Amino acid sequence: MSKQQEDTKNKSWGGRFSEATDAFVEAFTASVTFDKRLYRHDIQGSLAHAQMLEKVGVLTKDEFLQIQQGLKQVQQEIEAGQFNWSIDLEDVHMNVESRLTALIGSTGKKLHTGRSRNDQVATDMRLFLRDEIDLIAKEIRRLQLGLLDLAEHEAETIMPGFTHLQTAQPVTFGHHLMAWFEMLERDYGRLQDCRKRLNVMPLGAAALAGTTYPIDRAYTAQLLGFDNPSTNSLDSVSDRDFGIEFCAVGSLIMTHLSRFSEELVLWTSAQFNFINLPDRFCTGSSIMPQKKNPDVPELVRGKTGRVNGHLIALLTLMKSQPLAYNKDNQEDKEPLFDTIDTLKGCLRAYADMVPAITPNKEQMREAAMRGYSTATDLADYAVRKGVPFRDAHEIVGKAVAYGISQNKDLSELSLEELQQFSSIIEQDVFDVLTLEGSVNARNHLGGTAPNQVKLAIKTARHLIG
Ligand code: ARG
To answer: Which numbered atom of ligand 1 lies nearest the CA of 329?
Structure first.
């Protein structure tokens, strides 16, 4: 036999080939360098498949036990770092199967009965992503708990609330933190929705049309913890919606983290000086000795880009793809893996960092005083005394302009000064011009009053268990 013939014989699909694969093409088409990460789920899927084959009588009990034993050994070798991954064997599936056969002999060659790499890889990806989703969901919960604790501590701390990044009305820091909590709660829900649709088993679709063996798909699905077997073989091997959905959820998580990051970066600046991040989450400058940079939030903000990119990559990967499996689909892995790693890293950094945020309460308070943040309260006061809101708005606008000219906040103007703008203003106006008066007055579901924030925290703790 010639060297070339021998090369093709080594391939599991080499039978119909008369020349060896071009060396560059072999490396170009191989996925093992990155899909070896699926080994545990690949073996999990194979074990269940073999058990099912035994149940329906395609494998004998003894053959199944040999395969089971062999696959366990393969897993041990991989985990001990003693496994020899080979590019020639293209991907994780064929690497595992080939080693199995080397270990247990020709019984190993029976494992692939009634399946194809097409339904195998679709199954592996779902099993893998399902586990990763559970880890990511846990990290979201840890971050949420950190936010709840901090919000509870800061339920009465007053800061300026912003619209257009201009001081708008006073809010409590706890309320602001609870807004972040809400964003993450939606992310958590979306992750669970994605998991639900993902948890369907493609195995049994084989290459595309199903298989001639008397397989029991419900049994395999049950063994693997899937809710159901999939219902169309063509769709099963080609569908990557779950990956796209996951990346879309990931994009939103990163969008939220980038928004938190932007605020933390602003708030740690000397100009805002609202919060301190502990040194262990910051780095210095090699040239400017005074610097303490908020690297973690900046990096998280920056990493949003790659996750958005992965979402577009997967959407584009699937666009116009004809049924059923195409090699294009091998390109689903790297974007997904990187999305997972990025999410886990960013969420971990945030879950570790958030409990360590300390507010500079005096600075926050002073900033809230400085920006005429109780102007709406003064307008509402006038309305309560019978002035139509639009007129009240005008009156307060003039009072603010006057305050600016005198370099005084509304609460620092005397009663006489305030009365220049409307005779309905009386001594009790000072109750509403204080920051506490302002936040306490917004005492309804969803409002910023400390009472409401404490209630929201209680409800949230109940919700996330
Ligand atoms: N490595 C391949 C992938 O990730 C496995 C499936 C290959 N199937 C095939 N018909 N070539 O998509």
So the answer is: 12
Pocket-forming residues, ligand 1, beta carbon under 6 Å: 31, 35, 91, 117-118, 121, 325, 327, 329-330
Beta bridge partners of 167: 162
How is domain 31-113 classified at the CATH fold level?
Answer: Fumarase C; Chain B, domain 1 (1.10.275)
DSSP string, 272-331: T--EE--GGG-B--SS-TT--B-HHHHHHHHHHHHHHHHHHHHHHHHTTPPSS--GGGGG
Residue 104 near residue 66 (C-beta atoms within 8 A): yes
For ligand 1, atom 3: residue with the closest CA:
330
Q: Which residue among 236, 240, 327, 334 is best mutated to probe the pocket of ligand 1, counting the most ligand atoms within 8 A of its Cβ? A: 327
CB 36 within 8 A of CB 60: no
Catalytic residues: 164, 285
Ligand 1 centre distance from Cα of residue 23 (Å):
18
Fold assignment, 118-213+226-365? Fumarase C; Chain A, domain 2 (1.20.200)
CATH topology of domain 371-464: Ribonucleotide Reductase Protein R1; domain 1 (1.10.40)
How far, in Å, is the centroid of ligand 1 from the Cα of 331?
Answer: 10
Dist. CA 353–CA 278, nearest whole Å = 8
Closest residue (by CA) to atom 4 of ligand 1? 330
**Which residue's CA lies nearest to atom 2 of ligand 1?**
330
- The contacts of residue 327 (CB under 8 Å, 6+ apart) are 29
pTM of the model: 0.94
| pLDDT value of residue 15 | 82
Domain ranges within the chain, ordered by starting residue: 31-113, 118-213+226-365, 371-464
CA–CA gap between residue 99 and residue 104 (Å, rounded): 9
Residue 448 Cα to ligand 1 midpoint, Å, equals 54
Phi, psi dihedral angles at 274 (to 5 degrees)? -80, -35
Q: What is the pLDDT of residues 179-224, one digit of tens each?
A: 999 999 999 999 999 999 999 999 999 999 999 999 999 999 999 9
CB 410 within 8 A of CB 374: yes
Q: Report residue 245 as tokens.
A: 């959905």
284-340 tens-digit pLDDT:
878 788 888 999 999 999 999 999 999 999 999 999 999 999 999 999 999 999 999
